[in-house]
Amino acid sequence: xxxxxxxxxxxxxxxxxxxxxxxxxxxxxxxxxxxxxxxxxxxxxxxxxxxxxxxxxxxxxxxxxxxxxxxxxxxxxxxxxxxxxxxxxxxxxxxxxxxxxxxxxxxxxxxxxxxxxxxxxxxxxxxxxxxxxxxxxxxxxxxxxxxxxxxxxxxxxxxxxxxxxxxxxxxxxxxxxxxxxxxxxxxxxxxxxxxxxxxxxxxxxxxxxxxxxxxxxxxxxxxxxxxxxxxxxx
Length: 234
What we know:
By secondary structure, the chain is mainly alpha-helical. It contains 7 helices and no strands. The chain has one domain (49-224).
């Protein structure tokens, strides 16, 4: 009875969290596509910025969570941190996939080219490849403990590219525009509020996905343990 009650409460909390996230996404879409004013140079096309940049923000946060999981697993060897690492990596990779898709869509009309091998774009693509390899590596290693250790080391290494992605527009001359947040007058206040709403919505999506992926990985770990016990049984 207690287990059934706990499962019911968990399902209700999940449903409420999903509803809240859906509302935030709806508000962000309205703010980005309707409420925010048109940019004078690029017009309606500029509105892709809200989700392109916000996806990058959410992706960096997710990969930061993965990095924390990787480091803490290497220190403690607790499986929970391995679950956190893979959850953050998968979600971060998904958000950077959105970044790499929306970027060229915005770049073609704005710059006249789909892609440029400058520091920001190249380091972002390298980051995507590194975390794709991270997940591929996990799929190739069957032993759970070895998989956790090797992927944690590789994940910690892959995260070194995150600061390069973020600071590349200041460290090198790039085709990619400089950051507009935090510079006086750089972004219309209404546009800034719309961007904040998009960041809030996608961050909430990121948290929800990491939580669900963490639970899934914990169930996978339990399944692996049961299989190991069955293999050892006489």
